[in-house]
Amino acid sequence: MNFNFENFFGTDILIPAASAAILLIIAFTFLFLYFKGLKENVHAFWVLMQAKIGLRLDKLPNLIETIRGNSKGQEPIIAEIIKLRNEAWKVTDPSPKKVQLELNLSSDLHGIWDTLAKNGDLQNNVNFLAIRKEIIDLGQEIDRMADEYNDKVLHYNKRVGWFLPFAFVFGYRKLPVFEFEA
Question: Which of helix, strand or coil describes residue 118?
């Protein structure tokens, strides 16, 4: 006795069911690759932004040595810069903790510029002015990159929201937005 799918299911059901299954497989494959590409794009941009953040952190020892060599009585500022740099250097993932550390570093750097602006010795020091300009320029570039990163994350998170069951099954979760002023 031969089993015949045509007799069991009938051609009226078999062809549409097979077509629907193939379309679902294609749709899931497309969605998986689409989400993978979105997440890789966000991650690649984070790596670029992290490089700029690292470059700004690398400039801080030069700032510290310039302050030490040209200005007396600035030990509390130097200690604060060292503490902030050490804390910020440890966290490399785009987490709420990293956002807060960068916010603290940026805010404190603005305060440091204001405090050191009152110091005449430093305001006439070419090294200090050059380092200050580099750090401020890097801060502005980080701010611009953070805005672009946020756009990418918001786009990704919006798509995750649209396809939440699919995203959940394949491990795609919403990412934190990196909001701070450099």
Answer: coil
- On whether the CB atoms of residues 59 and 134 are closer than 8 A, the answer is yes
DSSP 176: P
What does the pLDDT look like over 18-51, one tens digit per residue? 889 999 999 888 888 888 999 999 999 988 988 8
Please state whether 44 falls in left (phi above 0), alpha (psi between -120 and 50) or beta: alpha
- The residues, ordered by sequence, that sit 6+ positions from 168 with a Cβ below 8 Å of its Cβ are none
Q: Answer whether 7's CB lies under 8 Å from 140's CB.
A: no
**Paired tokens of 177:** 């937005």
Domain ranges of the chain: 5-169
Query: Residues near 42 by Cβ (< 8 Å), separated by ≥ 6?
Result: 149, 152, 153, 156, 175
pLDDT tens for each residue of 94-115: 777 777 777 778 878 888 877 7
Are residues 135 and 157 in contact, defined by beta-carbon separation less than 8 angstroms?
no
Cα–Cα distance for residue pair 52/31, rounded to 1 Å: 32
Q: So what CATH class is 5-169?
A: mainly alpha
Cα–Cα distance between 134 and 153 in angstroms, integer?
28
